[in-house]
What we know:
Blueprint: H1 2-26, E1 28-35, H2 42-63, E2 70-77, H3 82-92, H4 108-121, E3 125-126, E4 144-145, H5 151-166, E5 176-182, H6 185-188, H7 191-201, E6 204-210, H8 218-227, E7 231-235, H9 240-251, E8 258-260, H10 267-270, E9 281-284, H11 293-301, H12 319-342, H13 350-358, E10 361-362, H14 364-369, E11 379-380, E12 393-397, E13 402-404, H15 413-431, H16 438-442
Parallel strand pairs: 1-2, 3-4, 5-6, 5-7, 7-8, 8-9
Antiparallel strand pairs: 9-12, 10-11, 12-13
Helix pairs in contact: 2-12, 3-4, 8-9, 12-13
Amino acid sequence: MKRNAFALAIAAVAAAGFSGxxxxxxxxxxxxxxxxxxxxxxxxxSGIAGGMLDYFKLINNRDGGINGVKLTWEKCETEYxxxxxVECYERSKNKGPTGATLIHPLSTGITYSLIEKGTQDKIxxxxxGYGRTDAADGRVFxxxxxxxxxxxxxNTAKVKFMGMKAGGMDKLKGKKIVNLYHDSAYGKETIPVLxxxxxxxxxQVTHIPVPHPGNEQQSQWLQIRQINPDWVILRGWGVMNxxxxxxxxxxxxxxxxxxxxxxxxxxxxxxxAGDAAKGYIAAGFNVSGSNYPVVQEIMKHVYAKGQGEMEDxxxxxxxxxxxxxxxxxxxxxxxxxxxxRFGKGKPMTGEQVRWGLENLNIDEKRLKELGATGFxxxxxxxxxxxxxxxxxxFQQWDGKQWKVITDWIPADHxxxxxxxxxxxxxxxxxxxxxxxxxxxxxx
Length: 443
């Protein structure tokens, strides 16, 4: 009798343990951390990964998760390599109780490789500030989100900035601009919009590629010296950026006439160049600084407990780190939005998170609640618009830190959106895709 009672008690405990484990598993929201911590692009990958994962830890530690659903993740090293990126995607897409929430490829090349896979698997491919620009047309690319601002939008803001400096857009006529770009899908992405703007405003543009990884640029800067352009657009990544700034100094080209993409505008891009970086200007869709409430909250609830991702704490508040926090905010808010429709306190599927992304509205009020006022721009997406923002700030390196030198400069949507729709329509025709009817879906 006693033996039977003991066996029943053990069974009850085991059952309780099993149900508790099952419940714990059900309360998880799995987000793959497919980034790169090694190689020539490691500063960007490690900084962004650190910021995003630290934000996830903040949500878990301070809030108990998203309405009680804890964020979980697994790191996978992509080495900024397309094949490795696809391998990491396949390895992670079915993990967690509902599979991958979404994927941050952190590579335009990997993003291109995952467009059809993500769409088939119903997993959002979120490329914040990179990726395929025409994927901003959600009617053709329902599971791809080049969010906040695309390369084409950013490029129109750059040309607006040049126009401001020249005294008006009409003053760009006859100017010479060099587009010095990383010879990859990422680097080539803005060639079409630059060519369109050159025709519109009457400036000359010369596209000069730099082979991966970009630590040899002697011939390119010799060509730039011969052209003697009014501006150089730097579309670099990793070691290519400080190499370009040092080469510009040797060539005697003024650094305040070089405008970098946001992947060329972090502390890791300018500090290695030393004095050669002083005066250099770069675009940005987020700012640096650790004094923002959201970063202070991370320090309080994550680093004070010894749980932070960054071994070098001086990188906290840097451009790349804060960009990772932006990645985290967007991810969490998309899941939170999805829960409003599909059930609070439940882990969301990729398909449900897609709806959350398309209905995301991070306005100024919400930014204040998140402790991110001025940290990032307001963001509102829709079925047809998977970008949701488009504005850019410009910052200048003074030799010690980045100084913001403009307010948010909006993109030229009148130019960019028709180009996006035309390119997306061509893709749809090639792939036999019938674009979604967003008006019908909303009704």
